[in-house]
Write a structure and sequence with these properties.
single chain; PH-domain like; 3-stranded antiparallel beta sheet
Length: 150
């Protein structure tokens, strides 16, 4: 089974990033209503620059997703996430567990993949819901993962 990244979700995230970039640039360009101390002014400048750079780079990632959506492949060999600029593959034996993650509103928002030898990976932004991805992973994992008996 192969799932593509959702262009709709990428567009919404891109709009959000561009909003933050705009706010950060505004912080740099528009003088505050009351003069700031030099120390505080340098902090505002640093926050504006760092924020604009961070959300600008993140916006580029979502532009990439709009132009060339990545894929998530769930197969007998394991799970492959190919975002175009980064490809990762986990064999079934390399995956400790899979869980559904909840957002601040306590809604199911993403699927968490816990590889044995690396940091957790959040799978979100696909054309299927987090629950559908979780079900597909667990179903395929049960079918193809080798059970080791010690």
């Amino acid at each position: 089974m192969t799932v593509r990244e959702s262009r709709r979700q990428a567009l919404l995230r891109l709009i959000g990033c561009l909003g933050f970039v705009t706010a950060c640039v505004w912080m740099l360009k528009v003088p505050p209503p009351t003069p700031l101390s030099p120390d505080r002014a340098s902090k505002v400048t640093a926050i504006g620059v760092i924020g604009a750079m961070f959300f600008g780079v993140l916006a580029l990632r979502y532009v990439w997703s709009l132009l060339n959506p990545g894929t998530l492949t769930i197969s007998a060999d394991g799970i492959t996430q190919n975002l175009g600029w980064r490809r990762r593959h986990w064999n079934w034996g390399e995956i400790d567990k899979v869980e559904l993650g909840r957002t601040a509103g306590n809604l199911v928002g993403f699927c968490m993949l816990y590889p044995v030898a690396s940091l957790p990976v959040r799978l979100f932004g696909w054309q299927l819901s987090a629950g559908e991805i979780y079900d597909a992973i667990e179903e395929t994992r049960a079918k193809y993962a080798k059970v080791e008996i010690s």
